[in-house]
């Protein structure tokens, strides 16, 4: 355990690690047209610069979370940051698309910083401040996206798109050094093992499913490639479920995932991820469509970035304040409020998007609502599982949010392409509002506030007060 004076530094490092990875994930989005021209590829090929990292992160996140639970967050965090940094350097130096995609895929292993950061926060932050810290951590994704959009224009215009890929390296290298210096050592669990067969099968079905999802619009949803990938995913998923039900130390404890506090939070994460990335596509696209269409604003990439700033700032502030609200009214109510705000923001712009101020108002409500929702689901998962399962449980939650984000991007793109003109954007915003409306019954199903002692007792671990009495007697 870190000394009291070092706890703030440890928590700050966790925040910076998550921020650096979020920036690495989002930084290529504004530069996709430049990457396409610079590497002589197609729009679909350039989009794989984002997809490759997303797929890699989706697989690595629960595996790294499990390793952090078993061997302690420090050694795993050092390894993850070092590997992610190496991948980002390869991507920044790549002269061809395959090499760049390989570097981005290796860099995606850095997605494991999310569950490791939650584990570190659980270990070093006092219980009364933990909800606020988890809320801030959850808002780093939106902040990373905002920073990437703000940096993209000046960096591309002054230095070129390739320098944009060096920006995450500038954050990851100090992160490795600070992690080695600050994060306290922790002991590994006795007789613990890693379910490598489960990890392999998990990676197989997940990569197949997400590849089908990301390529469906280009290949065709009924194409042999997409249908074949979905079939492979289904067969591999069945094999994975069979393995996880039989091994003593599963990668994902399916009994844990069936807890009401966990599955409701995971389902809400899926829908919230959709709402985040649907807006990330619809708002900038609408702003940059030419005025000659009669509904676009003819704005630049900078104008689109400025539109994202208030929403990202609202998301960060909401994440910070969610911890205070958690102590007063509980994460259940925070999730309800976040769903109402996000859904309301989308419903507003679904019917009123003819002026920029309307987009700012709807976007700000969306950002604040998602900040509350993300913080609430993270706190619900952390509170619902025993301490030794925090890494893998939050890793799965992050993974599910990533899947939802992929759905938000793809489905919104299909809607805009399939419904030409203004109707496509109105429908896309309306679908996002309906998605967040579906979070409301999930929030009502969330168990009311209970202490971690109850969660641990359900897994056969002695009650907290019993352990305290035993310790005092000893």
From TrEMBL:
Membrane topology: Multi-pass membrane protein
Boundaries of every Major facilitator superfamily (MFS) profile domain copy: 10-450
Transmembrane stretches, start-end: 45-64, 76-97, 103-121, 133-156, 162-182, 194-213, 219-241, 262-283, 295-321, 333-356, 368-386, 398-419, 425-446
UniProt xrefs under InterPro entries: MFS, MFS_dom, MFS_trans_sf
Keywords tagged on the record: Cell membrane, Membrane, Transmembrane, Transmembrane helix, Transport
Compartments, as annotated in UniProt: Cell membrane
Record CDD domains: MFS_MMR_MDR_like (cd17504)
Domain of life: Bacteria
Record PANTHER family: BLR6921 PROTEIN, MAJOR FACILITATOR SUPERFAMILY MULTIDRUG TRANSPORTER MFSC
Protein name as it appears in the record: MFS transporter
Organism, scientific name: Actinomadura fibrosa
């Amino acid at each position: 355990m870190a000394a009291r004076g070092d706890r703030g530094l440890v928590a700050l490092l966790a925040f910076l690690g998550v921020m650096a990875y979020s920036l690495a994930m989002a930084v290529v989005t504004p530069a996709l047209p430049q990457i396409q021209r610079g590497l002589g590829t197609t729009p679909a090929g350039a989009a794989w610069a984002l997809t490759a990292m997303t797929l890699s992160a989706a697989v690595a996140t629960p595996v790294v979370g499990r390793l952090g639970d078993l061997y302690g967050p420090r050694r795993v965090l050092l390894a993850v940051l070092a590997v992610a940094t190496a991948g980002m350097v390869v991507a920044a130096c790549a002269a061809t698309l395959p090499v760049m995609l390989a570097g981005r895929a290796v860099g995606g292993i850095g997605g494991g910083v999310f569950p490791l950061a939650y584990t570190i926060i659980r270990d070093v932050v006092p219980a009364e401040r933990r909800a606020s810290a988890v809320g801030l951590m959850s808002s780093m994704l939106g902040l990373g996206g905002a920073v990437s959009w703000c940096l993209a224009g000046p960096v591309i215009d002054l230095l070129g798109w390739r320098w944009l890929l060096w920006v995450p390296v500038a954050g990851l290298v100090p992160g490795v050094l600070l992690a080695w210096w600050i994060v306290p050592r922790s002991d590994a669990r006795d007789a613990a093992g890693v379910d490598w067969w489960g990890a392999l099968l998990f990676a197989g079905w997940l990569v197949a499913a997400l590849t089908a999802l990301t390529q469906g619009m280009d290949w065709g949803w009924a194409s042999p490639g997409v249908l074949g990938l979905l079939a492979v995913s289904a067969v591999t998923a069945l094999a994975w479920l069979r393995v996880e039900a039989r091994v003593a130390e599963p990668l994902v404890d399916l009994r844990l995932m069936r807890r009401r506090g966990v599955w409701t939070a995971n389902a809400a994460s899926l829908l919230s991820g959709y709402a985040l990335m649907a807006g990330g596509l619809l708002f900038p696209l609408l702003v940059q469509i030419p005025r000659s269409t009669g509904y676009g604003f003819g704005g630049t990439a900078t104008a689109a970035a400025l539109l994202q700033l208030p929403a990202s700032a609202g998301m960060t502030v909401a994440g910070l304040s969610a911890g205070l609200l958690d102590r007063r009214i509980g994460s259940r109510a925070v999730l309800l409020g976040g769903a109402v705000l996000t859904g309301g923001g989308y419903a507003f712009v679904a019917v009123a998007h003819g002026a920029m101020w309307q987009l700012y108002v709807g976007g700000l409500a969306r950002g604040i609502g998602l900040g509350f929702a993300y913080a609430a689901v993270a706190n619900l998962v952390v509170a619902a599982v025993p301490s030794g399962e925090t890494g893998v449980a939050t890793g799965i939650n992050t993974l599910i949010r990533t899947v939802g984000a992929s759905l938000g991007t793809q489905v919104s793109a299909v809607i805009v392409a399939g419904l030409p003109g203004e109707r496509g954007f109105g429908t896309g915003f309306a679908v996002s509002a309906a998605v967040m409306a579906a979070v409301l019954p999930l929030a009502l199903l969330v168990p009311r506030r209970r202490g971690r002692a109850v969660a641990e007792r359900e897994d056969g671990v002695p009650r907290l007060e019993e352990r305290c009495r035993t310790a005092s007697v000893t």
